[in-house]
């Protein structure tokens, strides 16, 4: 029973982190049909920005936890908005209408560029932002001890998911975005400024990626290469849930998180394998993912 309880808690914590990472990736693909490989670098940018700001704050004598969290979130959002705007306006806008494979190659090139740029700016020395993590302490859930910060990450992922759902399902802008998803040409013919919506969508997706990195920074050591590792796992999650579906990203993250936790507690040697085994098993029966929909062929 203890093992089952540990699998549930660890799986939920890991799933909440996976959803934060994958949400921006699936939003961008759903609206723009761009599989943004640079999303991993946006995650890393958020982590570096948060770690730098928190390290500076505590080194300068700060001791207010709420200010540290404000810096963490604020810096992650700011760098995500700026980076997303530059990437979309400066490069991706010139590629609209091209083959999706070409867009994949372009975003992969952006990932490599950003990885080297981060090394030039922050160097190769690890950055640590552990203060918010330790400040929230640990809590007992039954006989298990859980970090308060990780519980907070679960809450953040729930809030982000709720906001995204409300935005897409209950607001005028969300309805316009859904019309673009279903038929881009008809939306444009009805007067929708599709390019402006693309810019907004990409910036929001980029901000979601940097927020994920920012809230992860206190848990890990921020080093070069973390973005490359993350994009592979995020890709597995969104493919499992269905590319372009927020609900699919949430369910996919939950399935992958629980499967990984079960593997760690029962067969740790299969930890890496189990994520992709789950993805393969889903795709055998649902080629477009759990909540993905086949695109109608236009003639």
Automatic annotation (TrEMBL):
Keyword Transmembrane: yes
InterPro entries for the chain: ABC_transp_permease (IPR001851), BCAA_transport_permease (IPR052157)
Membrane topology category: Multi-pass membrane protein
Transmembrane feature ranges: 12-35, 65-88, 100-121, 141-168, 197-220, 232-258, 270-289
Keyword entries, A-Z: Amino-acid transport, Cell membrane, Membrane, Transmembrane, Transmembrane helix, Transport
Tagged with keyword Chloroplast: no
Domain of life of the organism encoding this protein: Bacteria
Cellular compartment(s): Cell inner membrane
PANTHER family attached to this UniProt entry: ABC TRANSPORTER ATP-BINDING PROTEIN, BRANCHED-CHAIN AMINO ACID TRANSPORT SYSTEM PERMEASE PROTEIN LIVH
Protein name: Branched-chain amino acid ABC transporter permease
Species annotation: Marinobacter metalliresistant
Taxonomic path: Bacteria, Pseudomonadati, Pseudomonadota, Gammaproteobacteria, Pseudomonadales
């Amino acid at each position: 029973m203890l093992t089952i309880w540990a699998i549930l808690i660890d799986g939920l914590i890991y799933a909440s982190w996976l959803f934060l990472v994958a949400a921006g990736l699936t939003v961008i693909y759903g609206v723009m049909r761009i599989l943004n490989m640079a999303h991993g670098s946006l995650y890393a940018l958020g982590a570096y920005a948060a770690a730098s700001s928190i390290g500076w704050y505590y080194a300068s004598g700060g001791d207010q936890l709420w200010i540290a969290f404000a810096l963490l979130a604020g810096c992650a959002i700011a760098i995500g908005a700026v980076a997303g705007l530059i990437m979309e306006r400066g490069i991706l806008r010139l590629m609209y209408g091209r083959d999706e494979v070409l867009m994949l190659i372009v975003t992969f090139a952006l990932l490599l560029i950003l990885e080297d740029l981060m090394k030039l700016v922050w160097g190769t020395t690890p950055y640590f932002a552990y203060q918010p993590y330790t400040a929230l302490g640990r809590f007992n859930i039954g006989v298990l001890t859980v970090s308060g910060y990780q519980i907070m990450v679960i809450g953040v992922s729930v809030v982000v998911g709720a906001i995204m759902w409300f935005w897409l399902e209950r607001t005028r802008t969300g309805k316009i975005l859904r019309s673009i998803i279903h038929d881009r040409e008809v939306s444009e013919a009805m007067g929708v400024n599709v390019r402006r919506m693309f810019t907004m969508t990409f910036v929001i997706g980029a901000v979601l990626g940097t927020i994920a990195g920012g809230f992860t920074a206190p848990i890990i050591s921020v080093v070069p290469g973390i973005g490359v590792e993350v994009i592979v796992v995020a890709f597995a999650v969104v493919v499992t849930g269905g590319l372009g579906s927020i609900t699919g990203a949430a369910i996919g993250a939950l399935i992958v998180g629980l499967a990984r936790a079960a593997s760690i507690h029962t067969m740790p040697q299969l930890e890496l394998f189990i994520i992709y085994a789950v993805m393969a098993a889903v795709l055998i029966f649902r080629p477009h993912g759990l909540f993905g929909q086949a695109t109608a062929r236009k003639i």
